[in-house]
Amino acid sequence: MPYDNDNIFARILRGELPCNKVYEDEHVLAFHDINPLAPLHILVIPKGAYANTDSFAHDAPPAQQAALMRAIGVIAREQGLADNGYRVIINQGDHGGQEVPHLHAHILGGEKLAAMLVPR
Ligand code: AMP
């Protein structure tokens, strides 16, 4: 999938749209999801132009790949989620239910979450 420079998270990264920021470093920006599905619902995105996990895993420099994972752990501790736990979800593509074509990890927590998927 070619990267769409006008997707909503690209516009947030360029400062054209606001976000409720919780964390930022050289490689990563994180902000509250506009439509939270848990008491805490944070999106963690790389600053590089990667549409999804596939392109990020294959094309991003290792320092950027590591930074995304590291940021998830840092944010979870900062937000008080580490002790009781939380869930990290990355939706990829059509079957994964991805809506915004800029890679983003959802951090969900603040209460005991429902089962991830309905049993088949
Ligand atoms: P996904 O279905 O994995 O692509 O998730 C996209 C997420 O982006 C959804 O949870 C939306 O609520 C969230 N979202 C869409 N627009 C914004 C925005 N402007 N600020 C924060 N979160 C957003």
Verbal overview:
The protein has 120 residues and is of the alpha+beta class. The protein has a single domain (8-109), classed as HIT family, subunit A (2-Layer Sandwich). It is 28% helix and 21% strand. It contains four helices and five strands; from the N terminus they run αβββααβαβ. It has helices at 8-13, 53-59, 62-78, 93-96; strands at 21-24, 28-32, 40-46, 86-89, 105-109. The protein has a five-stranded antiparallel beta sheet with strand order 1-2-3-5-4, covered by helices on one side. A hairpin with a 3-residue loop joins strand 1 (21-24) and strand 2 (28-32). The longest helix has 17 residues, at 62-78. The chain is globular. The N and C termini lie far apart (30 Å). It binds adenosine monophosphate (AMP). Adenosine monophosphate is lined by residues 8, 17, 19, 31, 33-35, 43, 91, 97-100.
Structure keywords:
single chain, about 120 residues, alpha+beta, HIT family, subunit A, 5-stranded antiparallel sheet, about 20% strand, binds adenosine monophosphate
Question: What is the topology?
Answer:
Elements: H1 8-13, E1 21-24, E2 28-32, E3 40-46, H2 53-59, H3 62-78, E4 86-89, H4 93-96, E5 105-109
Antiparallel strand pairs: 1-2, 2-3, 3-5, 4-5
The structure holds adenosine monophosphate.
Adenosine monophosphate (AMP) is lined by residues 8, 17, 19, 31, 33-35, 43, 91, 97-100.
Short description:
The protein is of the alpha+beta class and 120 residues long. It has 4 helices and 5 strands.
